[in-house]
Model the fold of this input.
Amino acid sequence: QVQLVESGGGLVQAGGSLRLSCAASGRTLSRYHMGWHRQAPGKEREFVAAISMSGGSTYFEDSVKGRFTISRDNAKNTVYLQMNSLKLEDTAVYYCAASPRRQVKDYRLGSIYDYWGQGTQVTVSS
Done:
């Protein structure tokens, strides 16, 4: 099993930036595809971004394309989500998740991720 712990959330003004980190323990992160999801109050959890095991492929939800980047440092067992030009609608609890599946057809699906962190709150203010 892998344990995931997110950090880096907080309160930021609209237009600002935050970098979220997801630190893994228990197993090496290089065995997993990694994703970030978020859940705003009263809304369903939604996909934000994902990165393949090797880091060679990345995927983004349309509303964050061009503003967010995802990266991984397998040597540090950590995945990052750099969030720029933050908007009010980015306010949510952000979760990282790990998928051990060899082949993934749709990184957006929450069901492909077997392990989840506890989440970190991101609040964007006007």
The chain has a mean pLDDT of 95. The first strand starts at residue 3 and ends at 7.
